[in-house]
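Open question from group meeting: does this chain pack into something compact, or does most of it stay loose? Before anyone orders reagents, we agreed to write out a predicted structure and look at it together. Recording both the input and the output here so the notebook holds the full record.
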Amino acid sequence: MRETPAYAAASAAQASSPARRTALRLPLPAGWAAAGLGVLGTAAAGAIVGLCSALVLAAAERPSFLSGPAEHGFPRWMVGPLAGRFGALPASPPALEADLVRVLVALGALWLVVWLCAARIPALVLCGAILVSYVVLLLGPPLSLTDIFNYLHYGRMLPEHGLNPYVSLPVAARDDPTYLYSNWHHLPSPYGPLFTLIGEAVAGLSVPAAYWTIKALLLVCSLGTLALVAVAARRLGKPWKPAVALVAFNPLVLVYGIGGAHGEPFMLVLAVAAVCLVLLDRDIEAGACAVLAAGVKPSAALLVLLVVAGSSRRWRALAGAAAAGAVTGLVVLVHYGGHLPATGIQDRFVTPLSVGNVLAALAGQGGMTAFDRTLAHAVLAVVALGATVAVWRRRDRLAGAAGLVMLFSVLTLGWTMPWYAWWILPFAALARTRALTAACIVLTAWLALGAIPQMPRLIHDAGFYPTRSAAGKINHDYTQRYLR
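Structure tokens returned:
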């Protein structure tokens, strides 16, 4: 590997520093205390598996808010093999809602315990807990929302109905069997063209077969992302087990990311691969992977600049990015008639507890406005530019800069979902500073608050009524226009 002197010196310092060999910033104690940390971490990992299993069993017991698609039917092919095995499910919706909050809080605490103790957890135990929890979560019905059926519906529009998903509305294919379980019926596809191709690739299968194929692919990409985090951590001289634990066991990743079968792994495996390839001096491939990640999910587009800036031979990374960009552009031009994802429409959606909406409300505006969105875009652009300059000067800042850009991508969005914490975690795990990890912990708590079913009642009790202001009502009505 050819390294710049600054990059080599930083890597050597990381590898030689005792603080970098632990999940904590202090050397782990020896003897029985170290063994105790291993036992504690192992017990916490086992408890995570148990809680994930209980959550899936509860969601698969009967229709409830735990699974969004269950509102429109509960077919066995969707619910999975764990259906009807949890007779103790509370009959009262408020009791079930309270149980979900307890599970999220417990998972959050266990996540931190596993992360702090990860260096002493046997590798087989850590990897086994990840695999079992992910498989169990994917064996149940989709938790919370209906996004996997949106993926399937957009993917079936062109091959099955001759409708361009970037032009036609999903409601135009209302006779498709996936339509019943989807919800963005009046929104052209906001997903990247390469992501939509994945849906089209399984469109020829029956809906149950396509559903489980997408879930299997998500599992492979999720585990692939974690494997790449481990490889990159070792390359940087960091202990790989804490890095992997930080990403894998985040409660929002588990419940809403994996359990919700959301498509982030298709983007993350390419984005993390790009960073890993920079570390291996595979500059052409790194640039290509960064662009392909953006082709899957446009929110990853700013990572392309960072990957090119962090490569040892930038012109080669730029060439790889250009080649992947040409392929993606050809798909857009030829296959989708030059039409792009509806990110402009989606950018105007607002959730009550997005940072921008809360700040606008505190400023007396009642909610985000067009000016606030413009300001948010400007802030993100400044952060991305500063991060690119920092990486250009020192390659060893790449992971941290990528995490910072993805963090501000979330903070500047009007529409934030709990699994968006996933965008930052792999890069925070690889960053040279713990500041990003601390930010992920705080962001996880905030996004979890916005996701729990009691959220409307809690914010009303605090005196925040998002839809009572003029701006809040405009934002609410605009979003509802594109739903059912």
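Observations to bring back to the group:
Confidence is low (pLDDT under 50) at residues 1-24.
The radius of gyration is 22 Å.
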